[in-house]
Specification:
With 238 residues, the chain is α/β, with parallel strands linked by helices. It has helices at 11-23, 34-44, 60-70, 85-94, 106-120, 159-169, 178-186, 193-207; strands spanning 4-7, 28-31, 48-52, 76-81, 98-102, 133-136, 139-142, 147-150, 153-154, 217-220, 224-227.
């Protein structure tokens, strides 16, 4: 079973989240503060994490950093205050895959967690399981194994970063605006465009030799983003 680690200091909120996840068939492990979560994580190795950013002990940002150091791929859904755009962006910068703002719908939270779990197992929203390899010069992405290797070294990508990379690489030369990416990669019809901006920035830092002068993941000002292939080598679908 896919255990979800729920890190939330408000007992009522934690109980509601866990109850809804249980109804969806997802067992949970509860942590009321950051230190408890960090200590439990290595042995628990949850399938996903629901993480409140404002928690005692150590805050959610530090919890997220430590979790990512142990497992860079575990999907993390952060809970954040509705009014704090800076908080949301900071959480995404540290490595969260998605967020829900407080007050939130428990049903929406469960749907978001389920979507993250599908992606983590290679099933992006609305898509069939991917197969084959996408190559671009020294960048090789194995969609089935969900691994990306650049210059012989495996990249440490979150599940959302991996999905974004695959989508961009399989649409070379096409300008994709942030609404396109929210719909196709996140599965959202409506959402915060800054989520895309932050993920593109993080991805660029991992695939570009000089992120300030990108040659692969370009910004088309006022329009969106474009993947510029290093080579014209065809994808190997074997």
């Amino acid at each position: 079973m896919s255990t979800v680690l729920v890190v939330e200091d408000e007992a009522t909120v934690r109980e509601v989240v866990c109850a809804y996840l249980h109804r969806a068939g997802l067992p949970t492990h509860e942590a009321s503060d950051g230190l408890v979560a960090v200590r439990a994580f290595p042995d628990l190795r949850p399938a996903a994490v629901v993480l409140d950013l404002m928690i005692p002990g150590i805050d959610g940002f530090e919890v997220l950093r430590r979790i990512r150091a142990v497992d860079p791929n575990v999907p993390v859904l952060m809970l954040t205050a509705r009014a704090s755009e800076q908080e949301r962006i900071a959480g995404l910068e540290v490595g969260a895959d998605d967020y829900v703002t407080k007050p939130f719908s428990a049903r929406e939270l469960v749907l978001r967690v389920q979507a993250l779990l599908r992606r983590a197992h290679g099933l992006p929203a609305g898509a069939e399981p991917p197969a084959g390899t996408v190559r671009d010069g020294d960048l090789v992405v194995d969609r089935g194994a969900r691994r990306a290797v650049l210059g012989g070294s495996e990249l440490s990508l979150t599940s959302r970063e991996f999905d974004l990379l695959v989508h961009l690489m399989t649409h070379p030369g096409v300008v994709l605006d942030r609404d396109d990416l929210l719909r196709e990669v996140w599965g959202w019809e409506v959402g915060d465009r800054s989520t895309v901006t932050v993920h593109v920035r993080r991805l660029r830092e991992k695939v570009e030799s000089d992120p300030s002068r990108p040659t692969r993941l370009s910004t088309v000002w006022g329009q969106g983003y474009r993947w510029d292939r290093a080579t014209q080598e065809a994808d190997d679908e074997a």
